[in-house]
Amino acid sequence: MLKDLRINNSLTGKKELFEPIHTPHVGMYVCGPTVYSDVHLGNVRTFLSFDVIFRYLMHLGYKVRYVRNITDVGHLVNDGDEGEDKIGKKAKLENLEPMEVVQRYTQDFHQVMAMFNTLPPSIEPSATGHILEQIEMIELLIDKGLAYEVGGSVYFDVNAYQKDHNYGKLSGRKIEELLSNTRDLDGQDEKRNPVDFALWKNASPEHIMRWNSPWGAGFPGWHLECTVMGKKYLGQTFDIHGGGMDLKFPHHECELAQSVGAHGTDPVKYWIHTNMLTVNGQKMSKSLGNSFLPRELFTGDHPLLDKAYSPMTTKFFMLQSHYASTLDFSNEALGAAQKGYRKLMNGLKTLRGMSADGVSEAELNEKAIQQINSLCDNCYRAMNDDFNTALTIGHLFNLLKKINSIHTGVLSIGEIGTETFDRMKLTFETFVLNVLGLKEESNVDFDGLISVLLNVYKEAKEAKDYDKVDEIRNGLKAQGVVLKDMKTGIDWAYEE
RNA sequence: GGUCCUGUGGCCGAGUGGCUAGGCAGAGCUCUGCAAAAGCUCGUACAGCGGUUCGAAUCCGCUCGGGACCUCCA
Known about the structure:
The protein is of the alpha/beta class. The chain has three domains: 6-274, HUPs (Rossmann fold, 3-Layer(aba) Sandwich), CATH 3.40.50; 282-435, Isoleucyl-tRNA Synthetase, Domain 1, CATH 1.10.730; 446-494. The protein is built from 16 helices and 15 strands. The protein has helices at 41-59, 86-93, 98-115, 131-143, 158-164, 175-181, 224-234, 248-263, 294-299, 311-319, 331-352, 366-384, 389-407, 413-435, 446-462, 466-478; strands spanning 6-9, 14-17, 25-30, 63-68, 147-150, 153-156, 197-202, 218-220, 238-244, 268-274, 277-279, 282-283, 327-329, 481-486, 489-494. Helix 2 crosses helix 3 (98-115). The radius of gyration is 28 Å and the shape is globular. The two termini are 51 Å apart. It binds one RNA strand through helix 1, helix 6, strand 9, helix 8 and strand 12.
């Protein structure tokens, strides 16, 4: 198997050969959702991208530990230092306990991800479950002179960090520029420097989510949880850290600084950032009001939607672009994706009915054999090139042409030989189902199907064609369905 | 304003120096009771201008569009 996987590392901006720190083990951390409201389609895109990355790494034989956190505390509604905790705010609005908010949206998130047929991560830690570890790390940073306490809050001292390290290396920012660009005067600022960020925030009396700490009652800062949980479950240095582009700065930059500050080493070998889903060219986001909820997409119940699109159609649509490119949402593109997806699924169905057993010998078609083998290789090449799912799908469609050719008799299994046929079958099925994580989505209605048969049954009965009647009745019975001739009409029931 | 990304045929979307991307839509052919599916063939796309090169969608410069981040955000 071709295993020269290359990943575009956002830290270096280069495509690099993937060499795990402890082969065959791979540690991957992805920033999960903040569970204060429903995930929207843009959020979903990122998690789908990493799901494919997770799947492909496993397919290559790596033992992957995939950690994706649930952020259930800490992100403030307003910028800077003031404002409410998002979850606390939602809890007040809906008169719920914060953990009820967290529970509800965590469940929703899991349901949505299951509908998209993604694999659960290996570990899904929550921020509130790691308050102690966060406090410990803050203490370590204070000891090292990289953090300071003011009025019950603790801030990371970027200037102190900058003496020995490089704050901004991930996002390509320069301290001076950051300083000159900080817009506003956020009132009674406790921070020594506007670029300093909170590790711990003092909780005002009305703040619901609060924990005791050496600095009084408060709550952890926004970036600390990932640093702490990444280290706890994947070690001081691990292979991959991912998330959406919009987390690169400040979130990941701060995470990086915290880790380097605390342990002196870079925490992550490969940073992967996924690009945004756009609507009419603009980033989909809650604050812009152009986001769709998965449910709205599945039902078609949204002003911008012409009709409903299924989870797999949506997933296929997203996988047809590369994770690092923006992807623009449109009804036309979704409609095209629906047809493409179904075509691929029909290929799966066709393939299921084909077998190389008992195939008669024929003169080998070397050209076809060579084409099929290189298409199989190309699937690996494409995925090895920074997880290029779009290109992979292109190759799969080419492979599908060969499959269909066999199906329609243009090409025979004998001509390509069982070895090539088996490889084609395995490659197609594996990439569609296991690597891309697509699944067959039946839109066939069971009741509708039976009613078609019942009509035929009724006609046979009227024509007194009792052989046909018995055939239908026995056939259905074999499937666990019994027909009942009622005075009012024909009905069916499950066999008891 | 700063930093960075991007502009591909009717639509979506890969591709980063020479080799068919692919899907959707469209045209023709084959197959066909009807219909569908499928196979084959086709359209000579790379924002504009200039440059480098034997050769550029791909590299460089300029111009014009679009976007992201700089603030919570996948």
